Amino acid sequence: MSEPQIWDTVDAYFSARLCPDDEPLRAALRDSEAAGLPQISVTAPQGKFLRLLAETQGARTILEIGTLGGYSTIWLARALPEDGRLISLEYSPKHAEIATRNVARAGLEKIVEVRVGAALESLPQLADENPPPFDLVFIDADKANNAHYVEWALRLTRAGSLIIVDNVVRGGRVADAGSDAPDVQGTRAAVELIATHPRLSGTAIQTVGAKGYDGFALARVLG
Q1: Is pLDDT of 89 > 90?
Q2: What is the secondary structure of 40-81 as a DSSP string?
Q3: Counting beta carbons within 10 angstroms of the beta carbon of residue 135, is it exposed (0 to 12), middle (13 to 18) or buried (19 or more)?
Q4: Taking Cα atoms as reference points, which of 158, 161, 137 lies closest to residue 149?
Q5: Res 1: pLDDT
Q6: Could you tell me whether strands 85-90 and 61-65 are parallel, antiparallel, or unpaired per DSSP bridges?
């Protein structure tokens, strides 16, 4: 059995035992695929991981940058109390429409708001609203702008908040200092920002699974 096959098999085992899906989650993936959205959502174990992090944080407010079809949005929103709030920023109107339907099917429409537009335009508008600090920020959008998203996350959080950046390993390409690929450059810039910013303490975790070889960066806001 090849390594990718083993990864898939182990992911399936953990999914079945630790994070079984339900109809809203299955439908979110099914409808996203039927609509031609990229098949790049987090896996079920990763979704459960995000939910557990949000629950451990005692999160009441979550900011998600990059909605896609709303699969990760559902996992995160399920960690919130009934009066919690999740704002998800999505560039594509088509993706946002599908995600909004998926969120509503999961019964989370009162908690989740999907905003359409380029995140680097939506984030200043959000800041102008002076919202309460977000307890958790999940960044899973265009990788070239990862450092900018981390900077905005810092502005919109508080001491103790958690910032998570998805897909930082890039199949190992993140270690190539000479790469001129925008996704690698953007990810390396975000990692460097986390490493050097006095208000952040972070680490990165490599992962393997049904979506291949990748990983998360996590940073806690210190002050």
Answers
A1: yes
A2: -PPPHHHHHHHHHHHHHHT-SEEEEE--TTSHHHHHHHTTS-
A3: buried
A4: 137
A5: 67
A6: parallel
For the segment 147-175, what is each residue's pLDDT rounded down to a tens digit?
999 999 999 999 999 999 999 999 999 99
Asked if residue 191 lies in contact with residue 168, where contact means CB atoms within 8 angstroms, the answer is: yes
Q: Rounded to 5, what percent of the chain is helix, strand, coil?
A: 50, 25, 30
Round to whole Å and give the CA distance between 66 and 78. Answer: 17
Other CB atoms within 10 Å distance of the CB of residue 199: 12
Torsion angles phi and psi, residue 177, rounded to 5: -65, -20
The pLDDT of 102-120, averaged and rounded, is: 98
Please give the average per-residue pLDDT across 37-61, as a whole number. 96
Angle formed by the axes of helices 182-196 and 146-155, nearest 10°? 40
Distance of CA 41 to the CA centre of its chain: 9
Tokens of 168: 């930082």
Q: How far is 203 from 44, CA to CA, in rounded Å?
A: 22
- Tokens for 114? 């999907």
**In angstroms, what CA-CA distances link 216 with 97, 144, 166?**
27, 16, 5
- Would you tell me how many other CB atoms lie within 10 Å of the CB of residue 62? 26
Task: Note the pLDDT of residue 159.
Answer: 98
